[in-house]
Design a protein that fits this description.
- By secondary structure, this protein is an alpha/beta fold.
- It has helices spanning 13-23, 38-48, 55-61, 71-79, 82-87, 103-110, 142-151, 166-174, 176-193, 198-218, 223-230, 236-246, 249-267, and strands at residues 4-9, 31-34, 51-52, 62-67, 93-96, 116-119, 130-136, 156-160.
- The protein has 13 helices and 8 strands.
- Strands 3-2-1-4-5-6-7-8 form an 8-stranded mixed sheet, sandwiched between helices.
């Protein structure tokens, strides 16, 4: 039986955000962390009141092993722990966060047909408002999926997909926050250009994005219907929509998502 429920190998921005979310569900003594920079792992371990160790210890002692390294470093990291994994006789699950890296590739790199959960979280998991699409290999049991979703519940929306859809989800929910920040920044800059004080411009831009998204999430109306509800005939909003359409706004957003999708597939 594993000594720790959850282990993290690599605690960058995403890994540390998920560790904080998991800590809201599990006591610190059931979590173990490792990182290439040991001082960073120790600092987070102190914050979460959990244990800090090295990669091999996490690979040996954790039930769910979160692999929080970038795709280009995944092979090297797994090479360093594959012997430890092969020696284990208890049940464990690899949880990969590497964009574009398929489940079968994780198994190849790890040196065995291990149970794998592939996830693509986004940065808002740090405040419990994230989106965490996930896919599982055939070797993951239903009760393990249930436990995984329970451990991740404070991260936000945890949603199971077929693996073939993970890269598309990554392009929308994984990359999407950056595009939303760009849009909100453009709103604030334009408001400042029109004379609104900068602090008010930022506040109003962010509140507008949050409020509109919340309204859309709570509504059964199509997004285009919600847009039309704001556009009075002959009014200011429809004039602004016209300007955005003239600049191919929707096409630019769709191109950004498709470009991100294609790049994600290349990473694997």
């Amino acid at each position: 039986m594993s000594e720790y429920k959850i282990g993290f190998i690599g605690i960058g921005n995403m890994g540390s955000a998920i560790a904080r979310a998991v800590r809201k569900v599990l006591p610190g003594h059931e979590i173990i962390l490792s990182n290439r920079t040991a001082a960073k792992a120790q600092a987070l371990a102190d914050e979460l009141n959990c244990r800090c160790a090295d990669n091999k210890t996490v690979a040996r002692d954790a039930q769910y092993i979160f692999l929080g390294v970038k795709p280009q470093f995944m092979k090297e990291m797994l090479e360093g722990i594959k012997d430890i994994l092969a020696e284990r006789r208890d049940r464990f699950i690899l949880v990969s966060m590497a964009a574009g890296v398929k489940i079968e590739t994780v198994c190849e790199m790890a040196g065995g047909e291990y149970p794998v959960i592939r996830i693509m979280p986004n940065t808002p998991v740090s405040i419990g408002e994230g989106v965490v699409p996930f896919a599982v290999s055939d070797g993951v049991f239903m009760d393990e999926i249930t436990d995984f979703c329970n451990y991740m519940r404070c991260a936000g929306t945890v949603d199971r997909l077929e693996e073939r859809l993970i890269d598309a989800a990554c392009a929308v929910s994984g990359c999407g926050p950056a595009f939303v920040y760009m849009f909100a920044d453009a709103l604030a800059l334009a408001a400042a250009e029109c004379g609104l004080p900068r602090e008010k411009a930022r506040e109003y831009a962010l509140k507008t994005v949050i409020g509109a998204a919340t309204l859309a999430a709570d509504s059964d109306m199509h997004l285009s219907e919600l847009r039309d509800a704001v556009c009075s005939p002959g009014g200011a909003t429809i004039a602004g929509v016209h300007s955005l359409e003239s600049a191919a706004f929707k096409g630019a957003v769709m191109d950004a998502i498709k470009t991100a999708f294609d790049k994600t597939k290349q990473l694997g």
